Amino acid sequence: MAEIEHDEVESSRAPLMDHLIELRQRLLLVIGFLTAGFIGCFLISALLYEWLLAPYSDAASLVRGVPVEELDLTANFFAPLEFFFVKLKLALVGAIMVVFPVIAWQIYGFVQPGLYKNERGAFAPFLALSPVLFAAGVSFVYFLVLPMVMRFSLGQEQASAGPGISIELLLNVSDYMNLITTLMLVFGISFQMPILMMLLAKAGIINSKQMLGSWRFAVVGIALFAAFVTPPDPISQLMLGSALLLLYFISIGLMRWMEPKSTEVDEA
């Protein structure tokens, strides 16, 4: 069996120059898709930004008790080219998200010849699951985290009943863009944790019993990670920490479900 696996890897070996040529071709393909995605996203960047403003307008409607149609909301920019650069950044982030499956499959295609047949079969399902989890993280931000952050922020407004000073949130297009892209990228990447844990389990580096016994350390680590990577607001930190802790225990359950099968293969 070992000789067959050795022959599989040997037969897939290629000279260094062939690997470099293949790497160049795959990089050019990824750059081509990114360029096309960037152009497409930039052409509709204004519409994309309006779509991203929906959680803000919905939160304002709820906090101020006014229907969305009757709200008079303004997103401000304070430099001549500020909104233009915001649209460029939005187009780039949008292109990366759209092309993410292509990037993942190109990485897999490049390393696949160096994997044994059983390793390819184990790795491919996780690779297909990665974009799904990334999209789940982005959706979690858009539909749950961002509305709560906006409601919390708008709740700090103070209206003056007399000649005093009113305190009102003035939305800056650049700050809002930085907030939402940071949250989406952080949550999208963090939602890859089940894939990482199950790959480590398949490699025999960790197992469900070890991870379950270390749950206290995991809670501390997740709390520190959430505080470090999210913007300095308690809502996003709490939401990321809670989501990661839930994914941690779900991953342990999936690892335990996988382990009996690997044991049966070893005994056979």
Automatic annotation (TrEMBL):
Tell me one GO biological process term. intracellular protein transmembrane transport
The way this protein sits in the membrane is described as: Multi-pass membrane protein
Locations listed in the record: Cell membrane; Membrane
Give GO terms: molecular function aspect only. Answer: proton motive force dependent protein transmembrane transporter activity
Q: Mind telling me which InterPro entries this protein's record contains? A: Sec-indep_translocase_CS (IPR019820), TatC (IPR002033)
Cellular component annotations (GO), alphabetically ordered: TAT protein transport complex
State which residue ranges cross the membrane: 27-49, 90-111, 123-145, 179-201, 213-229, 235-254
Q: Which UniProt keywords apply?
A: Cell membrane, Membrane, Protein transport, Translocation, Transmembrane, Transmembrane helix, Transport
Pfam families given for it?
A: TatC
**Highest taxon, organism lineage:** Bacteria
Q: What does the sequence similarity comment in the record state about its family?
A: Belongs to the TatC family.
- Subunit arrangement? The Tat system comprises two distinct complexes: a TatABC complex, containing multiple copies of TatA, TatB and TatC subunits, and a separate TatA complex, containing only TatA subunits. Substrates initially bind to the TatABC complex, which probably triggers association of the separate TatA complex to form the active translocon.
**Matching PANTHER family, A to Z?**
SEC-INDEPENDENT PROTEIN TRANSLOCASE PROTEIN TATC, SEC-INDEPENDENT PROTEIN TRANSLOCASE PROTEIN TATC, CHLOROPLASTIC-RELATED
Summary of the function given for this chain in its UniProt record: Part of the twin-arginine translocation (Tat) system that transports large folded proteins containing a characteristic twin-arginine motif in their signal peptide across membranes. Together with TatB, TatC is part of a receptor directly interacting with Tat signal peptides.
Q: What is this protein called?
A: Sec-independent protein translocase protein TatC
